[in-house]
Write a structure and sequence with these properties.
The chain is an alpha/beta fold. It is about 35% helix and about 20% strand. The chain is built from 14 helices and 20 strands. The strands form 5 sheets. A 9-stranded mixed sheet has the order 4-3-5-6-7-8-9-14-13, sandwiched between helices. Strand 5, helix 11 and strand 6 form a beta-alpha-beta unit. Helix 11 packs across helix 12. It starts with 5 loop residues before the first helix and ends in a 5-residue tail after the last strand.
Length: about 450
C-alpha cells in the first residue's frame, strides 16, 4: 500500500478532532476492516492466523498477538516480502540509518526491552506523517503555534541516541530538509547535567522533548534559574509523568507542558489535556484494557495488561497486540471539552539513582541505566542500588544463555555509562536471584533503590 502524504493526515486530524463517540466507533470499525483485509492479503503470518475466520470478523474474534510470537515469525509478518529480519539487522548495523527509511518505505525502531527481548518495529511513512499531524493539529494550542513561528520553531530533544522511536522521529526531521538541520538539535540522555543545561541555554528551543525523569534531574537547576531558556512547548514522554512535575515545569518555565503516552508499536496513543487527563487518539488506535486471561475489564477498573491495534501502520500490522502496561479507561466527560475517552497509565516507575562523587552526590536517570537490557538472551533485567557505591544486577535469561557471560558484557556497558557521568568507584555484582515484581503493586521495575536504612 502506498503511503499517503502529510496533507492527507493533516486533513483527517483537523476533520475528526471533535467527533462524537459513536462517530469514532464507526471510523475505528472502517479502518480496522481495511487493516485486517490488507494484512490477510499481504502478510503470510496473518494469512495463517486468520484462515479460520469469516470475511469480516469482529475485533473480539481476532486472536491476540504477542511480541514473542510475532518476532519468532518476523520474516512472515511484514506486508512487504522484501523486508526480512536479515535486511533490518543489516540496516541497523549502521547508526547513521537512524531516522532514514529502509528501502525508502519505513523507519526501524527497537522497543526498550523492558519485558524481554526487544521488538523490531517498522513504521511506514504514512504512520509517521500521522504522528506529526496529531502532534501539531491536536496537541498544540493555537497561541503556542504562533509563538513557535516567532521563535522559528526550534526543536530540542533529550533522548537515547539510538534506534528509539523518539530519536528516530528527531532524525527523520533533520534529514528531511537542510533547514531542519539548523532548527533541530539533540543531546544524549546520558550526558552530564551541566552539558544538557548548556546546550539548552545555547540553542533556546521553542519545543523541548524529554523524559520525565530527565526533567526531574534538571528541576533544581530550573528552580535556581540556571536553565534560562523558556520553550513555548515542552513534550514529556517515554515514562510516567506526575501532575506535580508537569505543573511545576509549566509554572517555572512559562511553557505549555503536556505528557504523551505511546509505544513504539502504536506511536502516539494519548496526550494530556489541561486537566491532566491522557485523552486517546481513538480514531487511529484501538485499546482494550484486559485482565490476565484477556477478558475485557470495565471502564474505571484497572487492567492487568493492554491490547493495542495500530490503525495506521500497514507495513507491519499490530493487531490486538499485547503490552504489559496497566491502564484504567475512563469514559465520563472531561471538563476540558475533549470528547475522546481518557486513560490512567500505571506505567513503570523506576528510581533516579544517586552515587558518591568527590563534589557531592551524582544523580542518574534510570532510563540511561536500562540501555544494556536489550541484549539477546535477556528475558528480565533488574538493576538494584544496594548502596551509593554498589549496584546489584538480577537477570532472567533464555535457555542456552549464560548469566555470567551476559553480566560481563552488561557490567562493561554500565561502567562506561557511569564513567561518562564521572562515577568511577562502583561495585557491580551479579545476583543469582531472579528479578522480582513489587509484592503489593505487582509492578516490575528495571532500576530501583534498595539502600540501607540509617
Amino acid at each position: 500500500m502506498k503511503s499517503k502524504g502529510m496533507l492527507h493526515y493533516v486533513y483527517y486530524a483537523l476533520r475528526d478532532r471533535n467527533l462524537s463517540r459513536d462517530d469514532v466507533s464507526k471510523i475505528q470499525k472502517e479502518r480496522l476492516k481495511e487493516l485486517v483485509s490488507f494484512a490477510r492479503e499481504n502478510s503470510p503470518y496473518y494469512q495463517d492466523l486468520y484462515k479460520n475466520l469469516g470475511s469480516d470478523p469482529d475485533l473480539s474474534a481476532l486472536p491476540v498477538t504477542t511480541k514473542q510470537s510475532l518476532m519468532q515469525s518476523f520474516n512472515r509478518w511484514p506486508t512487504d516480502p522484501s523486508i526480512t529480519l536479515e535486511t533490518v539487522t543489516e540496516f541497523m548495523s549502521t547508526k547513521d540509518n537512524v531516522g532514514r527509511y529502509l528501502f525508502d518505505k519505513c523507519s526501524v525502531s527497537m522497543t526498550s526491552g523492558s519485558t524481554g527481548r526487544p521488538c523490531v518495529v517498522l513504521t511506514d511513512k504514512g504512520a509517521f506523517h500521522l504522528t506529526m499531524a496529531l502532534y501539531f493539529i491536536r496537541s498544540f494550542p493555537f497561541k503556542d503555534l504562533i509563538s513557535l513561528g516567532l521563535k522559528r520553531g526550534k526543536y530540542f530533544v533529550i533522548a537515547n541516541d539510538g534506534f528509539s522511536m523518539s530519536y528516530n522521529s528527531y532524525r527523520s526531521q533533520i534529514l528531511a530538509t537542510p533547514l531542519n538541520k539548523m532548527r533541530c538539535q539533540s543531546i544524549s540522555v546520558d550526558s552530564k547535567e551541566e552539558d544538557i543545561i548548556s546546550a539548552i541555554n545555547r540553542f533556546k528551543p521553542a519545543i523541548l522533548y524529554a523524559y520525565p525523569t530527565t526533567m526531574e534531574l534538571l528541576l533544581p537547576h530550573i528552580r535556581s534559574k540556571a536553565v534560562k531558556a523558556k520553550p513555548a512547548i515542552m513534550i514529556l514522554g517515554g515514562e510516567k509523568c506526575s501532575d506535580k512535575l508537569r505543573t511545576e515545569l509549566s509554572t517555572l518555565m512559562k511553557s505549555y507542558v503536556f505528557n504523551t503516552y505511546g509505544t513504539s508499536e502504536a506511536s502516539l496513543i494519548a496526550r494530556t489535556c489541561r486537566e491532566g487527563h491522557l485523552h486517546l487518539f481513538a480514531d487511529w488506535v484501538i485499546i482494550e484494557p484486559v485482565d490476565r486471561d484477556y477478558r475485557p475489564v470495565s471502564p474505571g477498573t484497572p487492567s492487568d495488561k493492554l491490547l493495542i491495534t495500530n490503525l495506521s501502520n500497514f507495513t507491519q500490522p499490530f493487531i490486538r497486540y499485547e503490552i504489559t502496561d496497566r491502564v484504567t479507561l475512563h469514559e465520563e466527560p472531561c471538563s476540558c471539552g475533549n470528547r475522546m475517552p481518557y486513560i490512567e497509565v500505571e506505567g513503570r516507575t523506576d528510581d533516579i539513582l544517586e552515587f558518591n562523587h568527590p563534589g557531592g552526590k551524582v544523580r542518574i536517570s534510570p532510563i540511561v541505566l536500562t540501555d544494556p537490557a536489550d541484549k539477546e538472551g535477556i528475558i528480565r533485567y533488574q538493576l538494584i542500588q544496594k548502596d551509593y557505591d554498589h549496584l546489584e544486577l538480577k537477570l532472567r535469561t533464555e535457555e542456552g544463555y549464560s548469566k555470567e557471560d551476559l553480566f560481563e558484557k552488561i557490567e562493561k556497558e554500565l561502567r562506561y555509562i557511569l564513567s561518562n557521568m564521572d562515577v568511577h568507584s562502583v561495585t557491580i555484582t551479579l545476583s543469582q536471584d531472579l528479578p522480582k515484581i513489587h509484592p503489593v503493586s505487582g509492578k516490575y521495575s528495571m532500576v530501583l533503590k534498595d539502600l540501607p536504612t540509617k
